[in-house]
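Researcher: Re-running this chain for the archive, since the previous output was lost when a drive failed. Same request as before.
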Amino acid sequence: MRKLIYGINISLDGCCDHTRFSGPDDIQDYFRELLEGTDLIIYGRKTYELMVPFWPEVAQTQSMNESGNAFAKVFANLKRIMVSHSANSANDKQTIIIRDNLKEEILKLKQQPGKAISTGGVELPARLIELGLVDEFHMVVHPLIVGQGRRLFTEMFLPENLDLKLTSSQMLSSGCMALRYTLLPV
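Model: Regenerated structure tokens:
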């Protein structure tokens, strides 16, 4: 079964609001390498609209630096799913929309052949975690305290703790720490 991988940037105080901070090239390189092991990304509407059409356009124009352009090329070649009740269309031939039956639809995707599946953002991943669908967590912790902004996992309810195992850690040249966790077997 394919793994569902959740990746996100956070500050030391748990802020994941992309308007409060951003990362240097090594962050784009880290997430590009992560996406190279996937062939499908799943986002909620808000995150989807932040990523598409921005990154596919960068892939065409090659208008960023080397790291940004390389990330864009990998991103542009992935199949995409937007989970939304309100979006009428995706305006992107590589995107399909899931409106209902989230757990069943994601389980179907996980059972299909292919590479891992990636997700990002805040609200949708919280729902996927609640449903027990996320297999791996990639948290890139930035060495800063933001003090305000959206916090990670504040919108999630779990009936019991999820036990995770740190399977790797990597200090990036920017001072960010990339942490990879997997679920411990129940």
